Amino acid sequence: MLIFDQSRPGRQAVIPAIAPDDALSDLPASLRRRRAAPLPEVSELQAVRHYTRLSQKNFSIDTHFYPLGSCTMKYNPRVCHRLASLPGLLARHPLAPEGISQGFLTCLHELQEMLREVTGMQAVSLTPMAGAQGEFAGMAMIRAYHVSRGDHARREVLVPDAAHGTNPATAIMCGFTVREIPTDAAGDVDLTALRQAVGPQTAGLMLTNPSTLGVFERNIAEIAAIVHQAGGLLYYDGANLNAILGKARPGDMGFDVMHMNLHKTFATPHGGGGPGAGPVAANARLAPFLPIPIVGKESERYRWLSETDRPQSIGRLSAFMGNAGVILRAYVYARLLGRAGMGRVAEFSTLNANYLLAELMKTGFDAAFPQRRASHEFIITLKRQAKTLGVTAMDFAKRLLDLGFHAPTTYFPLLVPECLLIEPTETECKEELDGFVAAMRQIQQEAESSPEQVQGAPHHRPVRRLDEVRAARDMDLAWRPVES
Amino acid sequence: MPFIPHTSDDVRAMLAAIGAPDLDTLFEEIPSALRVGELPALPEALNELQVTRLMEARAADYPRPLCFLGAGAYEHHIPAAVWEIVGRGEFYSAYTPYQPEASQGTLQVLYEYQSMMAGLTGLAVSNASLYDGASALAEALLMAVRANRKSKSKRILIPRALHPLYRRTVHAIVHNQGIELVEVPYDPTGGHTPVEALAPYAGQDFAALVIPQPNFFGVLEEVDALTDWAHQHNALAVAVVNPTALAILKPPGEWGDAGADIACGDGQPLGSPLSSGGPYFGFLCCRREWVRQMPGRLVGRTVDLDGKTGFTLTLQAREQHIRRSKATSNICTNQGLMVTAATLYLSLLGPRGLEQVAAACHANTRVLVEQLTQVPGVSRVFDRPVFHETVLRLPRPASEVLDGLLARGILGGFDLNDDYPELGHALLVCATETREEADLRRYAAALAEIA
Known about the structure:
- Chain B: Keywords: Oxidoreductase.
- The structure holds two protein chains of two kinds.
- By secondary structure, chain A is of the alpha/beta class.
- Chain A has helices spanning 44-55, 78-84, 87-90, 102-119, 131-148, 166-173, 191-197, 220-229, 250-253, 262-265, 324-362, 383-389, 393-402, 430-449, 451-455, 468-474; strands at residues 123-125, 156-160, 177-181, 202-208, 233-238, 257-260, 280-282, 294-298, 301-305, 366-367, 378-381, 409-410, 419-422.
- Chain A has a seven-stranded mixed beta sheet, sandwiched between helices. In chain A, strands 10-11-13-12 form a four-stranded antiparallel beta sheet, covered by helices on one side. In chain A, strands 8-9 form a two-stranded antiparallel ribbon.
């Protein structure tokens, strides 16, 4: 039932303010709304009960193991939420003067410094509001760099075929064209193809490392050399930074610019799909182009750096300071981890992934890259099950929902058939991983003995599989009041 | 170890299962030259108590002045139930609803949100939100250029009376695609953008005209005439609106003869705390005919295998994870949690509650202006109706006045000098429903002392 179905004329949960009867008398009728907005009229209890019940239809990290590959669904510490919600932080107006904002600015500056250190970069801007906006910032910086040197021919961006869809989409938004680079059989970038692809038209290469195939790109030094010698730059997609945090740094690998996903690596909540935060970091060559605002420090005072301080900046990507509240949560998390804790993130996320892979292989599942060491995530392929039993990766995913596990990422990366991309994160305990293996074993047995049980899953969720064709055809995208 | 559950027995058993002698072996594929040891610039870890004390001290730096500053972010009362429910782990710690059977909560909330925004704006379709108001306008303009088949140009008419930070954000996001923003002047007496100001552009080709309501000065635009002008000249009409104001102002879908084509804006007034500028959310609504050009997530209502109603992400062929380089945008999330807050906020207020907020803001600003303009040398700059924000001329530079007010615990408004030097000593002030009569008097008394 929708909230609108519970609406009754004249009901109102909250009386937020009292205005005099003639409050709007000075507004011309031609500018006024004629009919009241079609919003629900419900009591406070009705609203609270409705949305509490809806929340219970969700899987979430707090309720379920959520091994969604490439999304780093780790525990979101409650203390980060509480401290970012302190009244002095929550009430701060974005345009409040620096003089009364030193505490807030200190947090941002210290986070900039910490991110600089863990990435091996020269400077950081925290402002992008999601990973995709961080990518946009980085690629716009590469564009601005080439233009600043009068090198207008560099309009082509190289993207491995295993890359996230955001990579090519971002390159287009920045005015580039895209050329795909194939991956070799071992899961590394095909160096021969890369050598053939680079040239005076190359603006740069976008790369995730460890890649979306769940393995570390071993030839990264050579890749960097090939691209740099051709005059291009290297963009690091920080989607998988969790795998190497405190162990290896993109700046040392030869990357020129990168983004991080604070909602992945730094444990800020995913919130049902945002808000995230995608800070961007750059080496000395690209630092002048970073988006503003950035927090600067001069003789123990913090201030915003703007267009005047940073004339080569690509500009601003939000009206104010991006998702400041998310940035504060990440800051608290980083302080809780500290120097020793950063490396533990990589160690235990990698331990969990390799353990889960080993146990699944023992259970009879096929790894996509069995000869490789897994990073913080790995791929199994269900090609065999699909062919011999008619049970697909999607069927396994849906049956996992019945058994109380969120599904891994399915059918991505595109080049591995019938794949599940599995990322357990460091915050899961061994018993949870063993439970997941047991569930996979059960589904395999069902696929062999009663495949319809798996093909028809889920059976025990609020809805069964949905008619997506109908959704796209009917385009029922909004409730509408019945005209009276 | 914070947030890591492994005992030493666990580690031993897991390494044995993997067949690795130690944790370090797991990183053997990273070339040794690229491995780093301890990173000295990182601070030592704090425990929860220590970090709490640290953050409480940092937060206390902000003295929480009495706020008359708006300029795109507005202090509104948020009913307690909003964040009590939004903060539930099932909303807070879920992700994008890729598995609809395990995400009906988030999906139905988004569908209800889309319905509420479509209703508020009077347009057929709302997406599931974008990052913030400024970036939503950038996406709206990219969308307008794609959608407008009558126009071959990538030029956009954008009023100088639009928020200056929005104009800069839009430029940063769209200029790499060759889109040109052409600034339209405002009327120095009314503070609005009169249709006559568009006359010089009549013979030229533009993809869209941006129409803010209210504009950055708080002034109400003649939206009907502007919308009709856009359509007469084969441009799309792109509305930038304040969602609170929509409770009392004509919705974009009813502007002019045909209605605006696209409406966007910042959803912050609907349940997002000020929080230093974010997270907020951007909303984006449009006529049904433009839906396939829309960026961002869309949720649709459908049925499951048993014919039961359910909700799912739809029209994903527009999006980057399917279309890659041919997607409508690179965006892959929305601001889900903030939109959940907006849905709760609008449910609790209902149509009348939102109207009461809008009316109280408007009334408070009227009283504030009456009181402040009693101060010698203080006057209104523009003579047209406003929503809940207006421009005052001061006898001294606004920066000096603001410093004096701040010393008296008042955040007095936005200094227009940098962005609009032609207005002289001008200050943008705002009084929302959270200001009481005594607050307004306190501001007037303080201003009388300083000005």
